[in-house]
Structure prediction request, 170 residues.
Amino acid sequence: MAVTEILGTDSLSSSRVTLNQNFITLEDEINDIKTYLDPTALTLTGLSVTATALSVSGTSALSVTTASTITTTGDCEFGAAVIKTGITGTSSSGVAALTSPFASSSYFVDAALVTLDASTTTGQEISIIAAVAGVIDGTNIAGSGNVTLAQYGTLTLRSDGTSWYIIGKS
Prediction:
């Protein structure tokens, strides 16, 4: 943005056109910014942000409404609970096979032998809850044979993109 400088030796009356043009230039720049920033609604829209850090403060929660995934390559610190949604099956009617893609974070199973598809998503974590006592086929679980679960026993697994790893079992 370029505005014309008015020197101390310039007369006010002869600088009126310059002053007016400077205000018009500033107004045009502010209007351009307001196409992205709504000062009334306190929203910023229509931008793609590239940054080395993003700091969000205030009393409102951070919400992404135009994407289905938030990806970060750094540490994340959450000051409140992390809620994983999605449960497949119920304690009275579980599934007999755990098939890819794994869209839920928790699965009730109710078969004597439950098959588990290979993992495909690095970092994905699932919890398995036995509605009845049974065995989880360990073919796709790294370093483990079949895993036996008592009724209401749990198994939590995390993926490296090819295999499942046991994180916890009760």
In short: The two ends are 65 Å apart (CA to CA). The longest strand covers residues 125-130. The mean pLDDT is 84. The chain has two domains: 12-48, 87-169.
